[in-house]
Design a protein that fits this description.
about 325 residues, alpha+beta, Immunoglobulin-like, 60s Ribosomal Protein L30, Chain: A, five-stranded mixed sheet
Length: about 325
Amino acid sequence: MGKYRVRIIVFSIVLLALALGLACKPRVSLQASKNQIKQGEEVQLTWESKNAKSVELNGQQVAPKGAQTVRPDRTTTYEIIARRGKKEAKDSERIDVEPPPPPPEISISADRSAIEKGQSTTLRWSSANAQRVEITGLGSVEASGQRQVSPTESTTYTATATGPGGSRTASTRITVTEPPPPPKPEPPKAEPPPPPAPNWGALFAQNVKPIFFDFDSAKLRPEAQDTLRNAASWLSRSENATMVFQIEGNCDPRGTEEYNLALGDRRANAAKEFLVSLGIDASRIKTISYGEQRAQGTSEGSPDSPPSWAHDRRDDFVYLSGGGSRGPTAPVVILFK
């Protein structure tokens, strides 16, 4: 009977020890106010424990019972551990953190950053992560594009991109300058002066030469006839057809004054008649005799070596008027010695 009682007592002690051991095992629980948040939001963690000598939350010592506000920037698991001796209990909560949307990106540029007033240039822009894009002076525009602009003064164009991730801006400046003044018109070119009027008297003298006679004769020598033919050809040209001229008969000093005046007259008319026979209008020809008034010779000599009697015996041809449309207004007298 006594042995049986002892066994009962021992068994009871073992059961009591087991019960006490089970009753002293630590317990802990952890709760989160939200398990899914956006980055920057807060979460309330609460916990409580029993039979614990120490409690740690993610490695940090905390009270056996309490609360803590956390703001995780990425997905995080919070673990709580309650310890009593070598015994421990655990619990955890996972907080999923949604990252923020990416910020918008924007760029803007101009094909030409400097233009003259009245000219145009093209703005080009592009954006990303934007729900709305606005440009000063243009208003709301598409996310990416281009637009031709013609500012009248220097202007800064600012593009603003707005999206879930916020706003960003970018700018470009177009400098507008006044165009240079138009070039001064070139002064009108001076009209070239009209060509000088022909010196009809000089031309006449170059083409109508004097003729010479034998002593006491009004007969035309062969060489005199050739000279008159050349003169008639030139006088018949259209630009010379209006010329009026005078034939002057001259004599050497031998003979009386009266005789020489008559001889000079015959010599002048001999040349006139010959020219008329070649087609020169008689109304264009005047004649006069100077007789011996212009005689300078003292001996016979030759026509080509004045002063000489041979040179005194001649007909001179003197331009009076006409020729072309602008002849001289005063007669030009050419004297042959």
